[in-house]
Sequence to fold (922 residues):
Amino acid sequence: MQKLRRKMKPLLRLGRKESIYFMVFCLFIFVVSISLLFVYEKKRLNKEYNTIIEETLTENLHHDVQGLKLSLDSVKKELMVAMNMFEDNQSDELKAFLAHQNQLNPSRRILYQKLEKQTDILQIIPAGTKAELARLREGQIVFSHPIYNEATNGHVINVVAPLMDDGKTHGFLYSQVDLSALLSKHMTNDTYKNVQSSIIDNQGVILYTSESKAAKETGNLYEVFPDLVIGKKDREQIHAMIDDEKKVSSVIFNRKNTSYFVSAMPITINDWYLVLSVRGSDVLLRSATIFKEIVRISIVAILITLSVACIVFLQLLFSNRRLEIEQIRNKRYASRLQAMFSQNNVLSTAIDIKTRRIIDVNDALTNYFGYPREEMIGKEISHFNLVERKVLDVQFEKMKKSSTEFLAVPHRLSDGSIKLLDVSTSVIDDGVEKFLYVILFDSTDREWYRSELFKEKEFLRITLNSIGDGVVTTDNQGRITGLNSVAEKLIGWSTEEVENQYFTDIVHLQNENTGEITSNPIQKVLSTGKTIGLANHTELINRYSEVIPITNSFAPIQSERGKTFGVVMVFHDMRLEKEHHRQIEFLSYYDELTGLFNRKYMENAIVKLAKKQESLAVIMIDVNGLKISNDIFGHEAGDLVLKKVATILEETCSSRDLIARWGGDEFVILMKGKLLQDAENLVKQLKDITVFIEGSNLPLSLSFGCACTDSQTSIAMALQDAEKNMYQQKLLNGKSYRNAIISTLLATLYEKSNETEEHSKRLEEYCLAIGQRLQLSSKELDELSLLALLHDIGKVGIDANILKKPSALTDEEWVEMKRHPEVGYRIAQETADLESVADLILAHHERWDGKGYPHQLKGEEIPLACRILSVVDSFDAMTNDRVYRQAMTTEEAVAEIKRSSGTQFDPKIVEHFIHVLEERKE
Fold:
């Protein structure tokens, strides 16, 4: 009842006039509803009873067909028995059998007809077809078409059996089956009346109908219903029904507002069909039932309507006072709500959901925005809200679905200023329509403070992440609150992983010297409120068990009033500094190239050893030929020689001996507690060791000097004596060693290039012949001879692959090849006996026209010996096989030299050379 009252509350607010209109409207709805209900029920009942009639017709049809077939089959069997008796000449028994059968079933008597002439058969089968007459002649039993029998005043079917003797028919036995008795029992029942039964053939021709009183009243099935016009569609339906030999078929069709029900079934005798039909108006069950249903529904509908009308009337009658009280209360509520809305200091507005237009505003909102109320009402919210249209559309869709809140939304005031407002919305339904109730709060100052706070926080974050030291902050309980990026990298944890975990569980500190774990420094700072710093020898053990040397300090984080609310640890990774310190220390006392002690370390060691007054043997060592090695093979080869010597000294000396690189190619060995004899024994061992230059067969030797301290000789004096002895040995062995180097270099040249000793001898011979023609002095002839032998000595420093390359050289290879005059020059400069030809070796590839190398000398700027060698060397190269070409004939070579006279060669030298060749030929 309470629910009904709540639903009818809007109705109870209506006045008397409105109530009468409402009653009339309800009556109209009732009449329409009853009419629609009648139409629906009529259709439903029609469908339901059509199904019942079809099923009843089909059932009766099946029963009639079975009865008719049973009767005809029974007669056929009796005739077959009589025929057999006749054929067995049992005349007496046949007569007795016929008499007995006719007595038992007078309506189905078996009669005898003698055949005197052929037309007698037509009396029994008046409409017999040729096929039926042929079957009779063959001795088969035949069923005649239904025939009207005046005696019984009904239709019968004659079942005829021929009596034959010697293949000739002399008579017939036949019996009559009364169709009226078999097919009239379902003409009328509780469901319908005036059912018409018909027997038709497969062409639709009526052979019998229950409405026909005479045999001649036959015809087509479509003419049975005089008031019916059968259309093409109906004809097809009936044909399909008749043609169905497997089952009973039914069809309903309407003509002239009358329904017809037709069912058909095959009899399987002479291709006959039994058809039952009834007119819709003859269905008794339908009319009575429909009438009863309509009456029942009408009574129920009237009762329901009257009940509702009474309830409404009673409610209207007894609720006038209640309506007045409710109206007064509603006015108070409305007035109170309006006052709460208008007089509230909170910015409030109501917005139409569909149009997004303002429908009401309170005074606080108009005062804040600076617009009069009339000007704001009707405006779209986009007039004040500065959010982009697309974003506003999305936000408004959220507003329509549920209560929503948006923070810091920009709005424009009447003076053009922009304020940030928090917007809170709710969907309100007042019973008539839905609208948005919106409350706004000024958040401009809050957002400004938030922006400033964010800037300050971001500045601090960037500052912390930019400094090179690690920073860890904790709260008053010693739980980690933050790490900067450097701290994360050093400790191995991210801020998210260690936040709110205790400092001592994450950061492990120990003493570098003792390995003892450092006590919790966070608690010290929290208890004292003072900054503390740990010892310089502190190590951090990170997440991955790596030990990192650090310097650090811990300081309290305090407010302006001195209240501590956390601790900050700042620490610096000392690994790089310690590594730099180790490198500086190493470079201060060790030779960077060889790894031996350097001179500074040895001088400090000498001072310390001098104080101990212990006997000491000193050995000075010099690497012979290191400069020439650097000039020929480069400084890298010289560095490798020094490293080899350092390795030899470390492997030969004892662990107590101090070994140092004293200078560029000099080494010093201090043998503590040893005598001079011990030093000499060591020197003998070292002299047996040969050091080869990397990439060549050129050996380098060492010069040694020994001395020993005693009561009269200090360490400094012993060093001087050892150095003096070393230089003395170097001077004695110098000349023989330099000669050995030259011989080795020439052997190396012949091995790695195409140059041969025979080539050098031929050049020397030709050069001296030309020199003699030019009347050179003996000194000049000696220099020319040396130049012929050693001009290509610099090729020992060129790659053998370039020297023996069979094809043309690349630009890079030519640059390398052109270095050999300079290398040869440096080799000659290092040897006193060859110093006089050093400049000649340097210029032996210059050309007469100035296009030679390395200094592009021209004409007589080129030394005479070099001009002579240029012609002779070219001739010998052309007349001997090379890896890149075969030798020319003397004539061809001379012709080529003449062509190059004045460009590559000195013309005068060319003339002298040709004279030499001609003299030798003669």
Notes: Confidence is low (pLDDT under 50) at residues 1-8, 213-217, 225-230.
